[in-house]
Amino acid sequence: MTQGVTVNVSEYLREAAAHNPDGIALVEHRADRRELSWRQFDDAADAVARGLSARGLVAGQRVAVVMANRIDLPIAYYGILRGGMVAVPINPRSTTREIDRMLADSKARVVLCDEAGVAQVREAVTSDHQISVIVDGTDPLAGETSFDTFLADASGADPAAPPDAEALAVVLYTSGTSGKPRGAMLTHRALIANTEQIARLDPPAVTSEDVCLGLLPMFHIYGLNCVLGQAVKQGARVLLVDGFDPGGLLERISAEGVTNVPLAPPVVAAWAGRDDLRDKLATVTMILSGASALDPDLADTFLASSGKHIEQGYGLTETAPVIAVTMGSKRGADGGPKAGSVGRPLPGIDIRIVESGGEDASPGDPAEIWVRGDNVFSGYWPDGVDGPRSDGWYPTGDIGYLDEDGDLTLVDRLRELVIVSGFNVYPFEVEDVIAEVPGVAQVAVVGLPDEETGEAVVAFVVPEAAGADEQRLLEAVEAHCRTRLARFKQPRRVVIVQGLPQSANGKVAKGRLRSLARSETLGLDAT
């Protein structure tokens, strides 16, 4: 271990409770405002560990957590890890079929769920009586246990998790935009490493004095380890929020004195330009955007209306998650992050920009990003396939380049690269050109198989105004592309749609776009 003596993620909670037992750790607003001290948080995690042990679970067995952001989610998560078991966080708004597949694939023995996902969980486990169901926020049915009863009935000695940093801690199912989701295996070592790497930033990303916004879903690695994990490490308070109400959330941020705001670009888009933004974010000292690329123009609009720069980060589920951040990188002329950059690698993380032949790319040339560090995952569940190479390097599948300052700029996903007649077409190039056309609100570009050229470029365009003249906009896009793009980069087809499908973390779901584009009707009007 290079990052210290911590070998189980739950030790951070124990340390926070010892340091500040009566300090407020977690806050939520549901029917009423609820808060939990560090001592109460730690004691409840102990109860979860005892309760799972009493049900016969032992170290290494999987426990699914199908919950929205609420206080009981961190309690369950840290209790599972403290008992040496493996947490399997699942989006509570997944379909029954998706939940059934992840429960079966992970071979979970227990599932903890709340009202957001209980209906789908119940449907998924009807044919499998080997899974115990513990419900939170709603009444249990026959054969189920309420979360409160589960905690109250927990007795006996605390289970002792084996002190092994290489033990599996979490199986997190990736979004699967190009196929079925796969479970990324993250050990305690990987999670601890990234927590410590973030903690070494100067200036720090989080301090014990912070009140952190817990809006990002904690079934996603960004919310789970970058937000919750870092807050627990630093002893910072977390305001847990389920669902996004732009105005209501701003009121809550102001009322709770939130200082640290991690978010995703859709939140930035919803807030940018509001007249009350500067006032409502008066207590905020740090804003960090991740999960997907932030448009520089949107960042500028947000700065103008809030007076605050947005830092950016880049990471993957497979890297637990953060690889690079703009904090500590060279600043732009206005004192904010360099436009378009996601910053420099965290301390302890190495990156390479690698051409298809395996050689390093020249500075400024885009190629695949490779990463190496203690934070890298151990491959995909259950047997560790497609993990890091034997030399520790993990090819991310992302395309980017390093500038003269050593800062990283993202270009595209390798799997989204479109190869037309043997020539590479990066979707972002085409998207940037189409976005220049007046009347275009959003655009996404994908590639589809083509008998003549191997692949062809297809562009999906969302008009700015409802009821816009679609034919005129279509002709304007095609004419602009003819003047600004090489022939092989020009879209074979431009489709006007009313919206673009998005994943839970705000990314355009290009896998769904490809599937829809293969259908004759496209079916996007109601998206």
Task: Summarize this structure briefly.
The protein is an alpha/beta fold and 527 residues long.
Helix content range: 25-40%
CATH class of the largest domain: Alpha Beta
Domain unit count: 3
Low-confidence stretches: 520-527
Identify the CATH architecture of the largest domain: 3-Layer(aba) Sandwich
Beta-strand fraction estimate: 15-25%
Global structural class: alpha/beta
What is the CA-CA span between the terminal residues? 47 Å
Radius of gyration: 23 Å
**Biggest beta sheet summary:** 9 strands, mixed
What number is the mean pLDDT?
90
Overall geometry comes to globular
Strands, total number: 25
SS field, number of helical segments: 15
CATH names the topology of the largest domain as Rossmann fold
Strand order of the largest sheet: 12-13-14-15-16-20-19-18-17
Q: How would you describe the overall organization of this protein?
A:
With 527 residues, the chain is of the alpha/beta class. It has 15 helices and 25 strands. The strands form six sheets. A nine-stranded mixed β-sheet has the order 12-13-14-15-16-20-19-18-17. A five-stranded parallel β-sheet has the order 4-3-5-6-7, sandwiched between helices. A four-stranded mixed β-sheet has the order 2-1-11-10. The longest helix has 17 residues, at 38-54.
